[in-house]
Design the sequence.
């Protein structure tokens, strides 16, 4: 089970590497934090998210679609490098390329001078290049606020240097947060040994894309979990945080990873944060207490109890071990069993314990499809048919 979870860690890391492409390879000490404006521009570039609160749409011909449907990264690449697909080329969108002093010559012979911030805004809103030429049909026109436009331009000026930390030509730096050795020595030692051993095995096979995995470990209690996570991100420059124990600090860790935009894969906690909006940087691989209780109650409801009244069915836990739940599966189970004579019905009592209540035979008439039908009359071959 643990090997399977660790394999999922590696697959997730490899997927992020593939999505980031060659631009993710850099010196791990060359990380520079994005400003708030640049982060907002990055959110619009990658996902079409607007922070202005106004509706942002993209116009394709005469059809309006949400900006999240036609994102900048979908055509121009995650790093603005430009992509050719289906015979259509979406040119580079980095600011150094857009502002080349000698201008551009696009496909089809269309020429125009270098972009400025003003001409770039006109290109996005009116579909015209700096020379007044119409853009290709595949390029949509956006209806967006001035704030979103300023954020996007700010990010395009940083997109070439916006690289991920913890990756260079030879290694991938990962981090994990474990309990204090003096408090939970067995748990901390076991989790650390398993991670180190498995990553050593992966490194012996060549690593991930010929890069060796380096693990940085921070030990501490629940009060220092957020501080240790911040230290891994800021000082150790990790690419991602894997496994570890975040119990007691779920809210702080989730907010920190979202702010720093660093993935946290497989945290061990009984209270996963699953509220809306969904945190894109935390990946839970284990169920929480709520999910485990729901699964246990559903399993208990699906069983068929054949015990007499007054005996306690052994498969159910003792009263008080389950929270007060009333899922739909229990109600369906009671309706299904109540019409079949004597049986048992699962019910949640006010004392937060799961009980089995005897169900009396139903007095309702059977369904029409269940009524016994008379056998058809056979016609004798020696006698004529009489209706």
Sequence:
């Amino acid at each position: 089970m643990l090997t399977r979870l660790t394999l999922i860690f590696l697959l997730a890391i490899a997927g992020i590497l593939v999505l980031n492409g060659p631009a993710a390879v850099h010196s791990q000490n060359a990380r520079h934090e994005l400003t708030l404006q640049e982060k907002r521009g990055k959110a619009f570039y990658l996902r079409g998210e607007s922070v202005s609160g106004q509706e942002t749409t993209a116009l394709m011909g005469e059809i309006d679609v949400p900006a999240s449907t036609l994102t900048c990264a979908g055509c121009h690449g995650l790093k603005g490098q430009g992509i050719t697909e289906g015979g259509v080329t979406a040119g580079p969108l980095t600011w150094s390329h857009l502002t080349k002093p000698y201008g551009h010559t696009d496909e089809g012979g269309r020429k125009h001078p270098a972009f400025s911030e003003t001409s770039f805004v006109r290109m996005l809103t009116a579909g015209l290049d700096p020379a007044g030429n119409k853009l290709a049909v595949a390029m949509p026109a956006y209806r967006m606020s001035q704030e979103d436009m300023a954020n996007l331009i700010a990010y395009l000026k940083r997109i070439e240097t916006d690289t991920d930390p913890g990756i260079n030509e030879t290694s991938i730096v990962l981090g994990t947060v474990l309990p204090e050795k003096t408090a939970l020595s067995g748990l901390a030692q076991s989790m650390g040994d398993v991670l180190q051993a498995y990553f050593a095995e992966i490194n012996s096979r060549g690593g991930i894309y010929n890069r060796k995995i380096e693990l940085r470990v921070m030990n501490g209690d629940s009060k220092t979990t957020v501080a240790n996570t911040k230290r891994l991100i800021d000082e150790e420059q990790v690419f991602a945080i894997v496994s570890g124990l975040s119990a007691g600090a779920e809210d702080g860790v989730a907010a920190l990873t979202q702010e720093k935009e660093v993935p946290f894969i497989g945290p061990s906690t009984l209270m996963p944060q699953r509220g809306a909006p969904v945190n894109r940087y935390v990946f839970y691989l284990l169920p929480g207490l709520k999910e485990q209780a729901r699964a246990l109650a559903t399993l208990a409801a699906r069983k068929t109890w054949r015990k007499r009244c007054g005996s306690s069915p052994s498969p159910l836990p003792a009263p008080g071990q389950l929270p007060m739940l009333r899922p739909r599966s229990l109600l369906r189970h009671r309706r299904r069993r109540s019409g079949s004579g004597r049986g048992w019905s699962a019910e949640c009592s006010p004392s937060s314990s799961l009980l089995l209540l005897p169900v009396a035979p139903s007095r309702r008439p059977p369904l029409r499809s269940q009524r016994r039908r008379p056998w058809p009359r056979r016609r004798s071959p020696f006698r004529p048919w009489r209706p």
